[in-house]
Design brief:
By secondary structure, the chain is of the alpha/beta class. 46% of the residues lie in helices and 19% in strands. The protein has a 7-stranded mixed beta sheet with strand order 1-2-9-6-5-3-4, with helices on both faces. It has a two-stranded antiparallel sheet with strand order 7-8. The chain has a two-stranded antiparallel sheet with strand order 10-11. Helix 9 (240-250) crosses helix 10. The structure holds nicotinamide-adenine-dinucleotide. The site of nicotinamide-adenine-dinucleotide (NAD) has 33 residues, from helix 2, helix 4, helix 5, strand 8 and helix 6.
């Protein structure tokens, strides 16, 4: 049975979660004058057919991977849409991970100043996080997601059947964002993730759907309260200033996003602990233990060892300055007081940053 979670933005939309639900998309798309499907070649090969009744829809299958989130690929997709004759009443369907969702969503936001898009996230990370909330973007060589727009999808279908084909590394990447969401959500979600950690690693169906749904519920709640990230939504960036810098210094595509974020969470907690804002210093070790059980790096050092990459402290600090969350050169972090109690926008002390990144 499929679950439905409403995202109360303007206009609101439903996120459907369940097994074999991609067949629901065709009738919705049929109400538009025309449509294109944006996907990547790997996902197209594995799951294009699950979108029953959509064989005729023009498909743009991009190269899989983070490098695809570029201005060059965005231009390719926009030209594809124009050549297919899309008009203002047409729609875009994205089928893929966060890369396809972010890029396809941005193309929909820009084409004729904005047309409808529907998201069919196929990676764990995209199902629990990237497909909800309307943040769309491409990367610039200078940094992650530097060119983007807010453009909410009009419907999301998270079909859990497609997750079976995810590579282990991509699975863990999704678990990284789930760990972040649990810290944002609060003690109950964190405890549920601890309880479900083993089943999650084993991709156990039943608890998986429940945990995915609870992450989506948290994200939907935070997004609805602040769709344009003017204030409260910034808590969702927990670990991301570090994570984005790690991704950039490693070279986009070398370290999956959620794995970089997991190391970023450890660093954000370390900063919280060292600056004395953490209510219970035990949360640092507790999160590290959970990360380990989920197959995630518990620290920057662990990530360096795991990847064999130097991830130089100076380069990471420099990259953080460029991160779009920085204001006039100051690096701003989300710090943690306790699960569910986060402090966004804290200006990071350069000395402290150098210590935790060493
Ligand atoms: N918009 C947001 O709010 C938001 C939130 C978090 C992350 N993101 C972005 O999302 C991106 C990361 O997303 P991602 O981890 O999904 O990466 P991705 O889209 O690159 O997908 C990872 C890999 O998994 C493959 N894949 C996807 N679904 C599959 C399936 N069902 N079976 C087999 N292989 C499959 C893809 O082909 C790709 O090779 C980053 O660019 C990140 O910045 C956006």
């Amino acid at each position: 049975m499929a679950d439905s979670i409403r995202v109360d933005t303007e206009p609101p939309y439903e996120v459907r979660i369940g097994r074999g639900i991609l067949g629901e998309v065709a009738p919705v798309v049929a109400s538009h004058t025309s449509a294109v499907l944006i996907t990547d070649s790997r996902v197209a090969e594995l799951h294009r057919e699950a979108l029953q009744g959509m064989d005729e829809i023009a498909t743009c299958a991009l190269e899989p991977g983070e490098q695809t989130k570029s201005l060059a690929c965005l231009e390719r997709v926009l030209s594809f849409m124009a050549r297919e004759g899309l008009d203002r009443a047409s729609c875009v369907i994205t089928l893929g991970g966060g890369v396809v969702g972010d890029l396809g969503g941005l193309a929909a936001a820009l084409y004729m100043r904005g047309i409808t898009f529907y998201a069919c996230p196929t990676s764990l990370l995209a199902q629990v996080d990237a497909s909800i909330g309307g943040k769309t973007a491409v990367n610039l060589p200078e940094g992650k997601n530097l060119a983007g727009a807010f453009h909410q999808p009009r419907g999301v279908w998270a079909d859990t059947d497609v997750l079976a084909t995810l590579e282990e590394e991509e699975w863990c990447s999704g678990l990284g964002e789930m760990l972040k969401t649990a810290l944002v959500g609060g003690e109950r979600t964190l405890a549920a993730l601890e309880e479900g950690a083993q089943a999650l690693r084993a991709r156990d169906g039943e608890s998986l759907e429940t945990l995915i749904a609870s992450c989506i519920t948290i994200k939907a709640r935070v997004v609805a309260a602040d769709p344009d990230e003017l204030d409260g939504r910034r808590v969702l960036n927990l670990g991301h200033s570090f994570g984005h810098a790690i991704e950039r210094v490693a070279g986009f595509g070398k370290i999956p996003h959620g794995i970089a974020v997991a190391a970023g969470l450890a660093l954000a907690l370390d900063c919280s602990r060292r600056s004395g804002v953490l209510d219970d210093p035990g949360l640092f070790e507790r999160t590290a233990r959970l990360a380990e059980r989920l197959g995630l790096p518990q620290s920057l050092r662990a990530l360096r060892e795991q990847t064999g990459l130097a991830l130089d402290a100076g380069q990471l600090a420099e990259s953080m300055q460029l991160d779009k969350k920085g204001r006039q050169g100051a690096v701003r972090l989300v710090l943690v007081r306790a699960p569910g109690k986060l402090i966004p926008g804290v200006e990071a002390d350069p000395g402290l940053l150098a210590e935790v990144l060493a």
